[in-house]
TrEMBL record:
Keywords: Fatty acid biosynthesis, Fatty acid metabolism, Lipid biosynthesis, Lipid metabolism, NAD, Oxidoreductase. GO terms for molecular function: enoyl-[acyl-carrier-protein] reductase (NADH) activity. Pfam families: adh_short_C2. It catalyses: a 2,3-saturated acyl-[ACP] + NAD(+) = a (2E)-enoyl-[ACP] + NADH + H(+). The active site is at Y148 (proton acceptor), Y158 (proton acceptor). The lineage of its organism: Bacteria, Bacillati, Bacillota, Bacilli, Bacillales. It comes from the Bacteria. NCBIfam families: PRK08594.1 (NF006369). It comes from Paenibacillus radicis. Gene3D superfamilies: Enoyl acyl carrier protein reductase, NAD(P)-binding Rossmann-like Domain. This is Enoyl-[acyl-carrier-protein] reductase [NADH]. One of its GO terms (biological process) is fatty acid biosynthetic process. Substrate binds at A98. Belongs to the short-chain dehydrogenases/reductases (SDR) family. FabI subfamily.
Length: 258
């Protein structure tokens, strides 16, 4: 099979099930010939991931446990990856978490612990992973994360996660400057609302966000995991070689509306 990512080794983080944005990304990367390394947190996610890989005939280079809130876990995962795969060309970061208690009501009620946890898992994790991957990206590379419009403007109930995504997007820019010298690009995709485990179970009033897309987005429809997967693949591929520090909206154009 020949593809734009033939011979490229890419880490995919954040497949919890077939609805995960990371699974859409994995399918696009596989289609273009990439060799995939997966990280997971919960054992249940690993089981789902294994079933999905089997069902889709995808043979990963490696599946590694990695809890991004734990430096030792990140370090162990990086060592395991380095031992198995000498050079990494890409990282798809698709993980986030905030307690659902803070994804409803008013942002002003966020506790210190709730704020720090959202920042830690959803924003700092990109910094930690970029640091861990840099020594493995000896041929240059591309890092892509997933953000949401709630970083740029107030979206009802998104609250603490909007603030974490704002930090994530700023981190994309600072990391792009730092890692550019090593030929490593850093970008983000800002996706429309997609019914995934985290989104449905986490953000209050999530269904309204989806309905609004059908009614108001310029394309008068929502986006899906496969569209985000293809756009992420583009940013991980040489097709986007002149792009870094960018936030690319894959949201049927919703962000251009006032
Ligand atoms: P999923 O629930 O499918 O994926 C979230 C992933 O985050 C899971 O695989 C989960 O792993 C992982 N995760 C959470 N905490 C940790 C941790 N401490 N260490 C390692 N992994 C962790 O939801 P999505 O696909 O929706 O989310 C993926 C990304 O896309 C997130 O950054 C999200 O904010 C972003 N996004 C989502 C949108 C949407 O509408 N769905 C819109 C825009 C952006 P586990 O289950 O094993 O804990």
């Amino acid at each position: 099979m020949s593809g734009i990512l033939n011979g490229k080794n890419i880490i995919v983080m954040g497949v919890a099930n077939e609805r995960s944005i990371a699974w859409g990304i994995a399918k696009s990367l596989h289609r273009e010939g990439a060799n995939l390394i997966f990280t997971y947190r919960k054992e249940r996610s690993f089981q789902k991931l294994s079933q999905l890989l089997e069902a889709n005939g995808i043979k990963p280079l490696l599946c590694v446990s990695c809890d991004v809130s734990d430096d030792a876990s990140i370090e162990a995962a990086a060592q395991e990856i380095q031992a198995a795969v000498p050079v990494i060309h890409g990282l798809a970061h698709s993980v986030a978490f905030a307690d659902k208690e803070y994804l409803q009501g008013e942002y002003v009620d966020t506790t210190r612990a709730g704020y720090l946890q959202a920042q830690d898992i959803s924003a700092y994790s990109l910094v930690a992973m970029a640091k861990a991957c840099k020594p493995l990206m000896t041929e240059g590379g591309s890092i892509v994360t997933q953000t949401y419009l709630g970083a740029e403007r107030v979206m009802k109930n998104y609250n603490v996660m909007g603030v974490a995504k704002a930090a994530l997007e700023a981190s994309v820019r600072y990391l792009a400057e730092d890692l550019g010298k090593a030929g490593i690009r850093v970008n983000a995709i800002s996706s429309g609302p997609i019914r995934t485990l985290s989104a449905k179970g986490g953000v209050a009033g999530f269904n309204e966000l989806v309905t609004t897309m059908d009614e108001k987005a310029p394309l008068r429809r929502n986006v899906d995991q496969d569209e985000v997967g293809d756009a992420t693949m583009f940013l991980l591929s040489p097709l986007s070689r002149g792009v870094t520090g960018e936030v690319l909206h894959v949201d049927s154009g919703y962000h251009i509306l006032g």
